[in-house]
Amino acid sequence: MADIEVARKAIEGDEEAFVTLMQIHKEALLRTALAFLKNEHDALEALQETTYRAFRKIGSLKEPTYAKTWLIRITINYCQDQLKKDGRYVRDGKSADSAVLDDLTQLELQEALSTLSAAEQQLIYMKYFQNVKIKDIAALEKIPEGTVKSRLHKTLRTLRSHFEGKGEMDHV
Amino acid sequence: MYEKEEQKLTDFKDRLEQVPLPLEAADGAIMQGLERAKREKLQTRAKRKRSLLSLAAAALLILTLVTTIRVSPAFANAVASIPGMEKFVELIQNDKGLQAVFENEYYQPIGESQTVGNATLTIDGVILDESGMNIFYTIESAVEMDDIRINPIALKNQEEISPDGISWHHSDFEEGSPKIFQDVLSYRFSESTKFEDLDFTLALQVKLNGKEFDFSIPFTVPENVKPSIVYEMHEEVEVEGQKFTVEEVTIDPLRVGIRLTFDPDNTKKILQFEDIRLEDEDGESWSSIANGFSASGEAEDGEIVYYLQSNYFETPEKLYLRINKMQAVDIEDSYFLVDTDKNLLLHSPKDGQLELIESNRSGIEMILKRKDQPDHTYGIDKKITDADGELLDIQSSGISSGYEGKQDISIDINDNGYTNPVRVDLFAYPNYINGDVKIELKK
Prior knowledge:
heterodimer, A: Rna Polymerase Sigma Factor, Chain: A, 75% helix, 0% strand, B: 443 residues, five-stranded antiparallel β-sheet
């Protein structure tokens, strides 16, 4: 596959291939950043930072097949650091810059997601937003598939309990 | 087991996928990230610098996003009353003119389908006027679509219609593999056309997961068009000594077309109209540049048609055409010359804002220094020719958004053995002339 060939060349240090790799995945990376940071300006910053970090570390990527997932992880890590650093993601789930995605139906979910740990958020994002297979998540994290499944299970349970608590209040 | 939670996550994902992305600025961000990484590889422990995107540009982008999400209740109601229309909302919500088309029930449902192999094409409906036809269509596949490419072959009436332009949306299944794809195919006619006979056939080739499907669907549009409203103007205006004539303004439900001609004796070349709009007597803006086609023709041929979002269904008492700021350069500054063998910039606008970083036969890297922060990011190149006047094939061309007082430009050329120097005609350049043109549109 052409994309894998591009990734392989990029890992070998081919700068042009690296730029192509970033362009292939820029949409996915921007969406990832938007999901966490909620505004376009910060998302573009995140893409820049991801490019910066990826270019410096691409030699450490072993398997070209995982290039996209690897890049998304860099983006998520950066976004989560930003949110922590800015302290703007306060516990009620409302971000300071709410221009992009905060319509009412999503607020509740975003609030629920914000209560998850960084690792849990990443897992949910990979599974449901990027449709990464459990097998691949396991390979990337170097943990057994069963462990991924049980973590996913636990995370969904956390989300459910959050919704149920919230749901009752809504119906009062 | 956790269907409800999973559904919520999927909904959020779908919602996220509707947000338009700043893809042009994205290339800039990638280049900036790369440059920074490269710089740091060279200068060990250099102080980390971060190039900030223009705040003004960011504010503009965010504003755009907010407006894209809010739709008028009238529009939402109009769309909700047409079955299967919900998915199309995101494709039309950026255009106030198209929203008005729905509010005024000018959209005509069709509902003709054809199945080829395991794919079905449905023409959901059309908006037809004298300026063009927007075809709302759905492609359903029995298998999950990883990749879909649309190739409009022909739109036929009694004979084939040769359009001035066709546009459709790029399909991106970066995330997920849906079975349904919906889009709008927008034909702009090369001249104002009113069909006697409303039987059409759309021939469309769809490449689905690499496999080709050829559709040909006959359909009949139920009602004929509402007539264009044409304002014959032929009024010459002058901005900082440069003359152009507003020939006419044509208002159709799909778009407003403003035809301008330029005085051949002008000493400057007008590159872009940054601010062109229709306004009512209270100064309220009724119509501004639409997505998709913004202009056709070239100022070089002495004529250009600008397209704005339509205000066909609005009836202000008075209507004015306003033109304020435009990009213009002296004729001799409307291009630059690079010798890519010698890596030399031979000619460029005399204000010196363009600087050559590096060039070779397969590309040119430049920076555009600027004092102001750009409101919009325009590409720099309109066309590239070699010393023999042969048009060169541009592989890619990009410009970053402004940062640290500059924009990075990168043009990749296909080296077919062309003769140096290469000439790049400017599409846009940050040099402005300002006027305050206000012309009343009179019947």
